[in-house]
Design goal:
- With about 350 residues, the chain is of the alpha/beta class.
- It folds into 2 domains: about 20-170, Glycogen Phosphorylase B (Rossmann fold); about 190-335, Rossmann fold.
- It is built from 12 helices and 13 strands.
- The strands form 2 sheets. The protein has a 7-stranded mixed sheet with strand order 1-4-3-2-5-6-7, sandwiched between helices. The chain has a 6-stranded parallel sheet with strand order 10-9-8-11-12-13, with helices on both faces.
- The longest helix is centred in the first third of the chain and has 13 residues, at about 100-110.
């Protein structure tokens, strides 16, 4: 099968970096409009979980000039959302890169921002607040010491990302984060030639954390059962996960392999049309769940679903300390019948 014809980057597990530059042509500045900066750098799952907060910020500041500061893999998500007037790419200078930090400081100061919503909220982005000294600093929502709207809840480190954003924005005067309109998060998948009834399998995870993966042999056995029920399994993931797809297809030759051939928008298009999706704790599952697709998400002791489970209208979570102990029958039962 030929890959989808588009010029967008394929899905990647890790964020990329690039020069501090304008990622999209800016819209004309509205005279007197306040200037807002939203920071969300990576990774995929975290960026997807921040979408409701981003939509709420736009709704709260309907006439503001809002800039997104992010990394290369997420530029088009920001641009196509319609919530941002411009997008900047964070160069993410190394700690010893004095010249890089000077460029970062200049970029932030040139923005003349009135308020910053730091949805990354890590030591690195807290340092961005310090880079704005001396002089008048913008209002700041985040965890940076000296922020005008700090989120200081001691339970923050145990909270789910959605709940962190809700609490942080409430401190900044945005009391509600309703479900966002994500109709823009879609793509025509007819060029893939898939049957009308298919299911997504997401067998990968961060390569340095293999214990987060349900064994590929179990995905293969499940794929055979899906085929028996008239459902075509479709495997997606990063190029580094090709071996997993090969193992699944060896067990179930009718599985369709789209490893390394799906943009983020292709994944969303697949999710909107799939019967359901089964996958590990990995970024694409957050994107899939956000579209409304029926999702069964598998967790081992390597990660905490209370903090990082996908959120969506139809999500089931299964957890075992060792995912090798999770049977195909249990996953099939969680689907409630394919």
């Amino acid at each position: 099968m030929a890959p989808v014809a588009n010029d967008r980057p394929m899905f990647q597990e890790n964020g990329e970096t690039g020069p501090a530059c304008q990622a999209a042509p800016p819209r004309p500045v509205r005279p007197g409009a306040s200037r807002i900066l939203v920071i969300r750098l990576s990774a995929l799952g975290d960026f997807i979980m921040a979408l409701p907060a981003m939509a709420a910020i736009r709704a709260h500041h309907p006439t503001a000039e809002i800039t997104l500061l992010t990394t290369k893999p997420f530029v088009e998500l920001g641009n196509r959302s319609g919530w941002f007037d411009r997008t900047l790419i964070d160069p993410r200078p190394r700690w010893h890169d004095v010249a890089g930090w000077a460029r970062m400081r200049r970029m932030l100061r040139d923005g003349r921002f009135d308020r910053v919503y730091d949805l990354q909220a890590q030591d690195r982005t807290a340092l961005y607040f310090r880079l704005l000294w001396p002089g008048k600093r913008p209002e700041w929502s985040g965890i940076a010491p000296g922020a005008s709207h700090p989120h200081t809840d001691p339970a923050r480190g145990r909270m789910h990302a959605f709940d962190i954003h809700a609490a942080q924005l409430a401190v900044a005067g945005i009391p509600d984060i309703p479900p966002p309109d994500l109709t823009w998060l879609d793509e025509d998948i007819r060029g893939l030639g898939l049957p009308s009834r298919f299911a997504l399998l997401v067998p990968g995870s961060a390569p340095h954390r293999p214990a987060k993966r349900w064994p590929a042999s179990r995905y293969g056995a499940l794929a055979n059962r899906l085929v028996e029920q008239g459902v075509t399994p479709v495997v997606i993931g990063a190029p580094s996960e090709q071996g997993l797809a090969d193992s699944i297809r060896a067990a179930c030759p009718k599985t369709r392999d789209l490893i390394g051939r799906t943009s983020l928008f292709t994944i969303a298009g697949l999710a909107r049309r799939a019967a359901f999706a089964i996958g590990n704790d990995t970024g694409p599952m957050h994107l899939i769940a956000m579209t409304g697709c029926r999702v069964v998400s598998l967790f081992s002791a390597e990660s905490n679903p209370d903090r990082s489970a996908p959120r969506g209208p139809n999500v089931t979570m299964l957890r075992r300390n060792d995912l090798a102990d999770l049977t195909v029958e249990e996953v099939e039962a969680a689907l409630g019948g394919a």
